[in-house]
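Honest question from a wet-lab person: if I give you the sequences of every part of a complex, can you actually get the arrangement of the whole thing, not just the pieces? Trying it with mine:
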Amino acid sequence: MALPDLAKKPQRFTGGHRACAGCGFPITIKIILQAAENPVVVGCATGCMEVTSTIYPYTAWRCSFIHTAFENVAATMSGVEAAYRSLRRQGKINQDITFIAFGGDGGTYDIGLQSLSGAMERGHKLVYVCYNNQGYMNTGIQRSSATPRGANTTTTPAGTQLPGKPQYPKNLTAIMAAHDIPYVAQASMSHWNDLYRKAKKAFAAEGPAFLNVLSTCRLGWATAPEDTVDVAEGAVQCNVWPLFEVEKGNWKLSFKPKKPLPVADWMKQQGRFKHLFRSDNSQLLETIQQQVDEDWQRLLELCGVNGE
Amino acid sequence: MTLSSQTKNLLKVHQDVDPDIKPNAGWRDLPIGGVIPQGGTASQFATGDWRTIRPVWSKEKCINCHRCWLYCPDMAWISEDGKIQGVDLTYCKGCGICANVCPTKVHAIEMHPEDDFKDDEAVKEG
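Yes, you can. This is the full assembly:
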């Protein structure tokens, strides 16, 4: 699909929403919704996406949209999908409808994890999209279990006592793959073609699908608004955010950087890692690089790809 | 009873799409449960006044790659029949992503401070 052709399709998300200038998630939504062919029903967990796109009486969604709480978007959409199946059986609905649940990393990695796990296990035919901006950005940048090690947040402030967040982020994509659902993928809004293709596959899956999409938060990452796409690209190029998919248990690498950039290059672009470039934190920088390399090697093995 | 300006605004958005809401309606006539009966009402809300820098597009240089259209978070780039028509300043917040993702060799978009356009606006309004 070429971009000019993609632009001919009507858009389901409008301007006039109140996200920051240079926000990443509207781009993620745009790419994913352009990939949908059927009418869509969207549910959204509490987060930036929900509160900025539906400020009453305005809504940026041109499709059915359900406002739900932080922890239960997967449960809400399970119910909607079950009701749809019942109505379809009764002959009251006769068309295919796509169900999408959007959640930020707070609503997916932490607060909404049990409802997500339940929905995937019960096999509801819905696509769960985590727009991952690596923190609780809506409430003022607190750490989440998706925040990278060393990042400065308001609950892991970098200073003399702490060099930012002490833990590594958890690998939620692998946790979802362990649910043995038909389709799981990790993508980035900077690689639109890859994300578009993965969204298509997720919509076509015979059962639940999960997409984990890196979406820059220019406020929380402390980057310039115009660099939103570049920073997301950087995360992929330095293997911090590898692109892969797991289809019916088969791991497949979607993109391999020709020569991976050092993680420090990606971190340098962002104010939240500024303190790591002080001389007393150089050891930590090396430790993080080692961990990223190890994770990358493990992923290559899972995908059956040879390393260097 | 005078309606608060907020209620008036809420009703105005709904009146456009819901014929049951009469012009003299009050807060009791608002849709129950905070339901918004029509999608896409945010398009009535202008976010363009957030902007401090403005994208200026050159039709001659543009190669219609649509990267600006794709990566604009505010759906401000207008495309018709696969051709870029320009930017809708009603929504553009001036983030500058479009100028940044425009291929370096093409360089069809430049960001200029809003102050540069002050005189143009004055002419239009005057």
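Two things worth pointing out. The first helix of chain A runs from residue 3 to 6. Residues 8-303 of chain A form a domain with the Rossmann fold fold (CATH 3.40.50.970).
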